Amino acid sequence: MIPLLLLACSGSTTSATTLVAVDGSSTVYPISEAVAEAHQSAGGRVTIGVSGTGGGFKKFCRGELHVTGASRPISTAEQAACDEAGHAFIELPVAYDGIAVVINPSNTWAETMTVSELKALWQPEAQGVVVRWDQIRDGWPSEEVHLFGPGVDSGTYDYFTRAVVGEEHASRGDITSSEDDNVLVQGVARDPYALGFFGLAYFEDNADKLKAVRIDGGSGAAVAPSGATVADGSYRPLSRPVFLYVRADAAEDPAVAAYVDDYLSERGHGLVAEVGYVPLSTEARAMVRDRFRARTTGSLFGGEAQAAAGVDARLRGSL
To answer: Which residue among 166, 170, 181, 287 has its CA within the 20 to 30 Å range from the CA of 124?
Structure first.
């Protein structure tokens, strides 16, 4: 678990300012942290935890958080939990991210993989059956595969299982899992027979320790994850938007509104790219700002795992 981050300015101007409580996705955490660090210069006070997307939504729907980050849209069950507790929410896409499938730098055989091969390896039926590299593709080493991935509270786990296996939460259980992506990075970096997945930004921060697998999503062309391939939709199916959810009643607190406004500002836009994520289009960013200013509640995505392509159209259709 990434430790709780408390960011605050010293001085009397902050004493009466609400401590903005943020939690949720480890994928969204670097953006939230960067915005919080910039926000403190204006006297803001922000505390940030990392419980994973699912863990964040549990706290959010109980009213324990003002804001939560999510690497997938809120599910129908989570919406029902918020509704039951009387907590309306504002859904804000804030960036695009890719999921990187990673191997150890010494791995020279699995530099490209198809989605079908990933499914054959990760699906529940593979547990205890597909255990060696040569069972995935002829000619690969007859060595045991060691798998690493996010925990079940992670939106990255949810998106990967739906995109690759075809069903959310459908995965073999004999993997090393953690909500802390740094644990996954270290696991793959130390093991020549490891394979794992997590957000593209974490790969780019650790590209000196890991190698990204090029993925063939069915077109016959294997595509490497990058900001460009996520933005143009060619890195399929492992690119997606990431979100910020704001409790509607909390948005009326000036301190909470100021933090979210910073997130959606030009400065926030620059920070998205600075920490390794892909910014929304100019049009999409304007529509997201309008959505927050109008305090528009509810989900545009209906509990669906949403690919990067189509977010602009979904936002446009909501106006």
So the answer is: 181
